[in-house]
Design goal:
462 residues; 21 helices; single chain
Length: 462
């Protein structure tokens, strides 16, 4: 039985979501020349795209409302078989490889070239991606007869990483939902986030692998919180992730939620102790590639610090932005536009429905876990210096679309259980907005780049 609730709070959520989505659509369809435009241009790069976008806006809300009234939507989510999941993964991965090869994303900074050189030479490079370069380099050298071009090899493998990330996000959606309809809603909102989907389409950088590590960690952690998996799985992944790419160390604070949940269970302390031992061993062994000895963390940290490139940013002595820049209005606009580009819909849903969920006391351990993943990355998002400017270095924060889209969709679903008809209409409008955003920005970051570079210049030393 659906519970309907009245009240100013619930109505306010609908108003905020509707108004926010309308603003995002207006930015895309009208393309106003504001101080910074790169987050929402260019829907009009093709005459057909505005018409496709308009069709999405007109059709999806009504279609979602009709679908939401179908009895199957209210059924509990099923458990797919592993052969079915693997079959879908193979087809999806092959499709993304083909699409990415046919329409590769353009590179708008020098970082992809550095990755290609490190992989081809099996070089430690700056040390920030030790295990990733080691893995990619050995795989490429094993398969050079089939895929001699290292750039195309990385793009193809990144497409497979993207396919796996999409499947894992679907698994996270099933963990967060109560019904098939809710599972579909959360999964679709996560899949259509630009920060997720762009990394799946011929993207040449480290961030598809970072997205895969993040989604794997989220999926394992949610199962652990549900009591269906040993905590060693997410703990070991969290321990290895920083050696895959260094910023993934920011996943670690969210392990507090897993620890608290485990300590309330029989033998939880022993399970956590075993998890810590395994994680320590894995993190120690992670420095064997390139460095040749275990637990060489100090050597690796010195290498990362030495090769940080901090001299190229706005501060000549730090990879962080100067405080005066952090509190500036210009940086605030940069942050807003980065959020709009990476996951505008998910962030809007989180900000609009999140306070209502808190007021209702409807949070649980899984929501707290996702919130802590996001919160631990906020200082990085706000203070880290994107050397190539917010436009060209947006992908530094791309993988954060995974937790923001999942948590934004979850709080939206919580509100939707009380307001089902309004939820269905707004869900359709949210998916339409995400679709319009993809039409405008997918594989289009290089369009009108000189103008956008003026809006979002490289961060030259003062």
């Amino acid at each position: 039985m659906t519970v309907r609730a009245s009240g100013a709070g619930g109505i306010a959520v609908a108003a905020l979501v509707g108004a926010g989505l309308a603003v995002e659509l207006g930015l895309h369809f009208l393309e106003p020349r504001l101080a910074i435009t790169w987050s929402y241009a260019h829907l009009w790069r093709s005459p057909a795209l505005p018409w496709v976008g308009a069709a999405l806006v007109l059709v999806l809300p009504a279609a979602t409302l009709l679908a939401w009234r179908h009895p199957a939507v209210a059924r509990p989510p099923g458990t797919p078989s592993w052969p079915a999941v693997l079959g879908v993964g193979v087809v999806l991965g092959a499709g993304l490889v083909v699409v990415g090869h046919r329409w590769p994303a353009a590179s708008i900074s020098v970082d992809p070239a550095a990755l290609v050189m490190d992989v081809a030479a099996l070089s430690l490079g700056n040390g920030r991606r030790l295990l990733l370069v080691w893995s990619l380099g050995h795989l490429w050298h094993l398969g050079t007869s089939w895929w001699p071009n290292v750039s195309n090899f990385i793009r193809g493998l990144n497409a497979l990483f993207g396919a796996a990330s999409l499947l894992l996000l679907g698994g996270c959606a099933r963990r967060l939902a109560h019904t098939r309809g809710e599972t579909a809603a959360i999964a679709l909102l996560a899949w259509t986030a630009f920060g997720t989907f762009q990394l799946c389409i011929g993207y040449l950088e480290v961030y598809p692998a970072e997205l895969l590590a993040t989604t794997l960690y989220l999926w394992l952690a949610l199962q652990t919180i549900d009591g269906e998996l040993h905590p060693a799985w997410p703990v070991v992944v969290a321990a290895l992730a920083p050696f895959w790419y260094v910023t993934l160390v920011l996943l670690a604070p969210s392990l507090v939620v897993i620890a608290v949940v485990e300590l309330r269970r029989p033998r939880g302390l022993g399970r956590l102790a075993l998890s810590a031992i395994l994680a320590l061993a894995a993190a120690g062994a992670a420095t064997l590639p390139f460095l040749g000895r275990p637990f060489a963390w100090a050597t690796l940290a010195a290498r990362v610090s030495e090769q940080s490139g901090r001299q190229f940013g706005l501060s000549p002595t730090s990879s962080l932005l100067p405080f005066a820049y952090i509190v500036s209005g210009y940086h605030a606009r940069e942050l807003v536009h980065t959020l709009l580009l990476v996951d505008g819909v998910g962030v809007l849903l989180l900000l609009a429905a999140g306070p209502w969920v808190l007021a209702q006391g409807a949070t649980d351990a899984k929501a707290v876990f996702l919130a802590l993943v996001i919160a631990s990355h906020l200082p990085y998002f706000i203070a880290f210096d994107p050397v190539w400017g917010a436009l060209c270095d947006w992908d530094l924060f791309s993988y954060l679309a995974a937790p923001t889209s999942l948590l934004g969709a979850w709080v939206f679903v919580q509100w939707g259980r009380r307001w089902p008809d309004a939820f269905a209409l707004l869900l359709g409008l949210a998916l339409a907005t995400a679709g319009v955003h993809l039409l405008a920005r997918l594989n289009a970051l290089e369009i009108d780049l000189p103008r956008h570079r003026i809006e979002s210049p490289y961060h030259e030393p003062p």
